[in-house]
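REQUEST FORM: STRUCTURE PREDICTION
Request ID: SP-0412
Submitted by: Lab K.M.
Chain count: 1
Length (residues): 187
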Amino acid sequence: MRLPKRIAALMIAGLLALVLGLAAEHRGPGAPPTGAADLSAAFPPHVSGVAFLETGLLDVPPAYAQGYESYWDALYLLARVIEGEAADEPFLGKVAVGAVILNRVRDARFPKTISGVIFQPWAFESVSNGMMWRPLSNESLRAAQAALAGWDPTYGALYFWNPAKAVSPWIWTRAIITWIGRHVFAR
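STATUS: Completed
RESULT:
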């Protein structure tokens, strides 16, 4: 019996994630992945207690600290969803997608970890269709780093969608905050 291509792809992606997770355990928890790029030069240094209003960086607690995920796990998982959801969006749109995920982590109505939010059933199309597993771009990694540093160009949005795609009518009942690229961001 042949498995449908979509199910086979998801099974392969799951096995790959398992193997990569086991390899990460060998390096120790919180260790940067092999070949991880130093992306810190792309952003202004964070000075405690100061909000970077001109760049959108806010002095907020990092969302990844609320669960049991290391910074590197959070960075790469967030970057994967950003790549899957916003690969063709401008950099600001990529950061905005990451910010929505982190806003959900901070909101009591959602799971308290990045992986919990990302893998919540039917929460993100790129998780459901496997697009989050395509190759990562440096821009998606930088956007994930900016979102984890506190940059939220959505001003607290919990939802985003592309109005050119079929969506539930319920989503249009949310209070729209802003449009960035082809996505609408709302609370």
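NOTES: The longest strand covers residues 176-180.
Reviewed by: T.R.
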